[in-house]
Design goal:
It is a single chain. The protein is mainly α. A five-stranded mixed β-sheet has the order 3-4-5-6-7. The chain has a two-stranded antiparallel ribbon with strand order 1-2. It is built from 21 helices and seven strands.
């Protein structure tokens, strides 16, 4: 089956399904649900919404994306990549604005899938994804310092932007709660050490249990989720966002960012999963599923969702091999939501902060960041660092927009440096320059220019270097090294032809490749020059020039 097919992977895997695999999928789904529970709550709080919103997202988006997705083992839900942008949307536009942005993003993803744009995600530079991922990690850490240290802010303190949060931390560092710090440190140590003790039970669950025991058992004065949020254990209800033109226009940039992020994260997760199970995902079907999942999440009180690499990897490691595991994970979380959600009120906020510190550490890709800084070309390092700084100082929308713009401009500059127009030299028979021997048979009335590299708007002015002498009767333009020709360069080529013709010389084109030839034909340039003046190679061009001179 082709990896661009618009067919859910579930339908394919069920054809070869067995009772043994069903048992493995159920076990994997239960384990992944245990892992997803504290993470979903923590990521929801980091996103500025209630803890139950994280569970809603994992349930609804998780089920829909597994059911319709193009991957065998993808687990979807709330992820750290969305935390900062969701928090910003909620601060400025409330939950209704977030719901509208998520629905619009879902629609964009569905359209991208049906237009088969899944493969285009690979054109987002690695430097940009690394830069904003590291930036998101830093913003998550900064956003959780308040709860980790138990700081108290004066009423009315603005902490929307990361810069505001840093200022508030510095201004109120004297209000540190050492009991909260102790709880946070103990939970952080548990999260670091536990994987070396047991790899089956997630460390986040153990950290939650330890944090609750410390605060309730020792009577420590530390804020818990229940102190700051009202928790609902009921099932989500349907809500329709405001689809007015003004609201859509206001939220559209955020919706676009959510869509791009969801596409990038989910397809990256699919690629990682493919390597683990030796399979191939269907990228376009995955985009459609991500779109449906996000629309469903938004309509039932959830937040944006995408493929979660850590949860997907846990699914594979515990025996999950089909989308059934992801669906089981969602069903288990429904039971947790109804039965155990009230107990989430007991979780200390420093424990949530410690969990998010580990999430940030695992996602920051600091090794890849440092490696790029040391080894990548300067232009790529500029894009990497700029995207990172803009993500931290401003937000993800600005970072992606300017990062892509810079990457595009630097790419154009790099390609323009590769293109050149070089004139063949006249060589006397007495000369013995090894590099010039092959030019010996070019008659003096014939001038030869060779173009190499792509001809596009960034290099169109280089054709001004093509000049002819008074004695030149024929100009040969050799284009065997030109793989592509765009409209701007085509116009410059026409102007060059008109200039040379006005001087009384004939123009011959040698070895024009397929794409440039099609562009010339469509522009009517071949008819203008004459088909007889387009030759297969330089030898044929020289023969044609000799006839013209005679």
């Amino acid at each position: 089956m082709k990896n661009d097919a618009l067919k859910p992977m579930l339908f394919t895997t069920l054809k070869e399904y067995s009772k043994e695999q069903f048992v493995k999928d159920v076990v994997a789904g239960i384990i992944v649900a245990i892992i997803a529970l504290p993470l979903s709550i923590a990521l929801a709080l980091a996103s500025g919404v209630g803890p139950e919103q994280g569970i809603y997202t994992a349930v609804i988006a998780g089920f829909l994306i597994s059911f319709l997705g193009g991957s065998r083992v993808q687990i979807a839900g709330p992820t750290a990549a969305f935390a900062t942008i969701v928090a910003g949307i909620v601060q400025e536009n409330g939950m209704s604005g977030l719901a509208l942005a998520t629905v619009l993003a879902g629609i964009m993803l569905i359209i991208m899938g049906f237009l088969k744009l899944g493969s285009l995600i690979k054109f987002i530079p690695y430097t940009i994804t690394t830069g904003f991922t590291a930036g998101i990690a830093v913003t998550i850490v900064i956003g959780q310092i308040k709860d980790f240290l138990g700081l108290t802010y004066p009423e009315g303190t603005v902490t929307v932007e990361t810069v505001d949060k840093v200022g508030a931390i510095v201004s109120n560092i004297g209000t540190i709660n050492y009991q909260a710090l102790i709880v946070g440190l103990v939970c952080l140590i548990v999260l670091i050490v536990w994987p070396y003790i047991n790899k089956v039970i997630p460390g986040s669950l153990i950290a939650v249990i330890v944090g609750v025991i410390m605060v309730k058992g020792l009577g420590m004065k530390v804020n818990t989720i229940g102190d700051l949020y009202t928790i609902s254990s009921g099932l989500p209800s349907f809500t329709m966002p405001d689809f007015s033109f003004a609201a859509i226009r206001n939220i559209l940039p955020d919706a676009f960012t959510i869509a791009i992020l969801a596409a990038i994260e989910s397809l990256l997760s699919c690629v990682v999963a493919d390597g683990m199970i030796g399979s191939k995902h269907r990228s376009n079907m995955e985009l459609v599923a991500q779109g449906v999942g996000n629309v469903g999440s938004a309509l039932f009180g959830g937040i944006p969702a995408t493929g979660a690499i850590a949860r997907t990897a846990a699914n594979v490691k515990n025996g999950g091999k089909t989308p059934v595991a992801g669906m089981v994970h969602a069903i288990v979380l429904v039971l947790v939501l109804v039965v155990l959600m009230p107990y989430a009120a007991l979780i200390p906020m420093p424990t949530i902060a410690a969990i998010l510190f580990m999430v940030a550490y695992n996602m920051c890709q600091y090794r890849a960041f440092i490696h790029l800084v040391k080894t990548a070309p300067k232009s790529d390092v500029i894009v990497l660092v700029l995207t990172f700084v803009l993500t931290v100082v401003f937000d993800l929308v600005v970072a992606i927009e300017i990062g892509m713009l810079m990457a595009g401009l630097l790419f154009v500059k790099r390609m323009s440096e590769e293109a050149e127009v070089r004139s063949w030299k006249y060589v006397d028979d007495e000369e013995h320059d090894a590099d010039a021997i092959r030019f010996r048979n070019v008659p003096k009335p014939v001038s030869v220019y060779e173009i190499s590299g792509p001809m596009f708007f960034g290099v169109s002015d280089m054709l001004a270097d093509i000049t002819v002498k008074d004695f030149t009767k024929c100009l040969i333009i050799r284009m065997r090294g030109v793989p592509a020709l765009d409209a701007t360069a085509m116009r410059s080529l026409e102007q060059t032809y008109d200039r040379v013709k006005a001087s009384g010389a004939e123009v011959i084109f040698s070895h024009v490749n397929e794409q440039p030839m099609k562009t010339m034909e469509k522009a009517g340039f071949i008819a203008k020059v004459g088909k007889e003046n387009f030759c297969k190679n330089i030898d044929e061009s020289l023969e044609r020039a000799a006839k013209i001179i005679e």
